[in-house]
């Protein structure tokens, strides 16, 4: 159950609930500072996002026109830029504390491709936005002739039109990273408790620990909820829960593939984000083995089994758009992960609104990349020190953040819906996509108004809430609770 002794009869300074990349990084950073820390989570990490991630260490490749169109989006980007700068030292410290071993870095830089899949309103616009932000922040990059992409051999109808390389955005092996983090944590004196938390224990407005699935309780002066998409289950046990944006899952499927020719690219190869999801990305995991990722499907609950259609979509995208002979390669492993997504689309970071409660989740696709920075910043806050990074925009106890107008969100839904069709190679008469757009726009606007007269969820949540009644219910209840809470505060 435990390492470094059991928790019975012990009171910890800090209990970190969640043993993914964020929880591990925070637990290690706190332990380095002399805190008695317990890290809580089942060893096989069900529902986690980290274990199935491509673990790309970059933020510019994730830029979209929507992200940089709001102050909150730009604040998130700037956190990502700062995190990128921290990774070399972070990895060096882990090597020193654990004795090193094989390098956990798997990819040298990131190559962005703009191919013939998708639509200009998304793919061309996001490709241009990434370049613009690289220039804005003076981040090195250089153009690459698509003909010189030595590992890219897409089918002709999916060929790349443009490409550039970002030398500063790498990737790591997430499983090896978490093994090294846990080793450093226990070596420093931390305690690992391999149990599932079912509730947060509190006395009035003071959090005192958690209850485990086996009936035991663990006490601590400070409790940090960093359990990814499953954090919502714990927030539901607290009186402050309704005042915090609800969490849902960004379920995704990835695959490890043994290439038929025994080769792998040296860098990450990816497209811009599109179709309500992350861009298609292929990256080396080891010699002759590649990681494939692309999917993101909003789900009201975390999932642990891949849907067949998502796996088929991923494999077809990879061999059509990146390398044709992947079709003859061998799928070594299918992975499922759950990204924690708040219903307003932004992280939940900081004071949880009760004494002794901290929240560190809702990071969507950026949790692993942000982990060194957020570990440092949350440690400073827990220890009462002056923080460096601005996390205030993402304080957990907040009304819904409305970063974009309803009109812009509706337009995004329309464009991404059309893009799904093109990415899945639909065959329609030329004029039909215009007709579909004309029907989608008023239907989507009507649905947004039906969800709530004031608040509009991010595009992917608005889109899927039409198909998932539970998600629509979550949104309606959260907006109603937020409005009621605001009214009570005004009184």
From TrEMBL:
Keyword Oxidoreductase in annotation: yes
Record-annotated FAD dependent oxidoreductase domain positions: 13-380
Gene3D superfamilies found in the cross-reference section: D-Amino Acid Oxidase, subunit A, domain 2 (3.30.9.10), FAD/NAD(P)-binding domain (3.50.50.60)
EC nos: 1.-.-.-
Biological source species: Streptomyces celluloflavus
Record-linked SUPFAM superfamilies: FAD/NAD(P)-binding domain
Organism domain of life: Bacteria
Name listed for the protein in its UniProt record: NAD(P)/FAD-dependent oxidoreductase
Pfam families: DAO
GO molecular function, one term: oxidoreductase activity
UniProt keyword terms in alphabetical order: Oxidoreductase
Keyword Oxidoreductase: yes
């Amino acid at each position: 159950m435990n390492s470094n002794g059991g928790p019975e009869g012990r009171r910890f300074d800090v209990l970190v609930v969640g043993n993914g990349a964020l929880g591990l990084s925070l637990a290690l950073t706190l332990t380095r500072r002399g805190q008695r820390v317990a890290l809580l989570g089942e060893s096989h990490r069900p529902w986690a996002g980290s274990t199935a991630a491509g673990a790309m260490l970059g933020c510019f490749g994730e830029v979209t026109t929507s992200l940089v169109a709001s102050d909150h989006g730009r604040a998130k980007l700037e956190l990502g830029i700062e995190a990128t700068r921290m990774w070399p030292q972070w990895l060096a410290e882990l090597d020193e504390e654990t004795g090193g071993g094989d390098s956990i870095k798997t990819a040298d830089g990131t190559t962005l491709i703009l191919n013939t899949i998708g639509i200009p309103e998304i793919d061309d616009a996001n490709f241009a936005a990434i370049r613009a932000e690289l220039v804005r922040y003076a981040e090195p990059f250089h153009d690459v002739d698509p003909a010189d992409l030595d590992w890219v051999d897409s089918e002709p109808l999916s060929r790349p039109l443009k490409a550039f390389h970002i030398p500063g955005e790498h990737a790591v092996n997430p499983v090896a990273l978490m093994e090294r983090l846990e080793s450093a944590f226990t070596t420093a004196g931390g305690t690992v408790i391999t149990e599932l938390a079912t509730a947060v224990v509190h006395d009035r407005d003071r959090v005192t620990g958690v209850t485990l699935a086996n009936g035991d309780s663990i006490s601590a002066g400070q409790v940090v909820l960093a359990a990814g998409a499953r954090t919502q289950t714990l927030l539901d046990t607290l009186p402050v829960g309704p005042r915090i944006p609800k969490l849902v899952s960004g379920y995704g499927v990835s695959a490890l593939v043994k290439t038929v020719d025994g080769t792998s690219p040296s860098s990450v190869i990816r497209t811009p984000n599109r179709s309500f999801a992350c861009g298609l990305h292929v990256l080396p995991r080891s010699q002759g083995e590649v990681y494939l990722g692309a999917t993101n499907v909003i789900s009201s609950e975390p999932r642990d089994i891949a849907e067949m259609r998502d796996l088929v979509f991923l494999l077809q995208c990879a061999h059509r758009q990146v390398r044709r002979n992947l079709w003859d390669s061998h799928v070594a492993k299918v992975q499922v992960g759950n990204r924690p997504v708040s219903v307003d689309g932004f992280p939940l970071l900081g004071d949880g609104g009760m004494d002794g409660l901290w929240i560190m989740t809702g990071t969507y696709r950026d949790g692993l990349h942000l982990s060194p920075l957020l570990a440092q910043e949350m440690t400073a806050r827990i220890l009462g020190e002056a923080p460096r990074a601005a996390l205030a925009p993402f304080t957990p106890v907040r009304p819904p953040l409305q970063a974009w107008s309803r009109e812009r969100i509706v337009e995004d839904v329309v464009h991404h819906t059309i893009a799904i069709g093109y990415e899945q190679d639909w065959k329609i008469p030329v004029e039909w996509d215009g007709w579909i757009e004309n029907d989608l726009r008023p239907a989507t606007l009507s649905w947004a108004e039906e969800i709530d007269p004031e608040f509009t969820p991010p595009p992917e949540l608005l889109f899927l809430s039409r198909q998932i009644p539970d998600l629509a219910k979550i949104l309606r209840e959260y907006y109603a609770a937020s409005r009621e809470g605001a009214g009570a505060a005004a009184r």
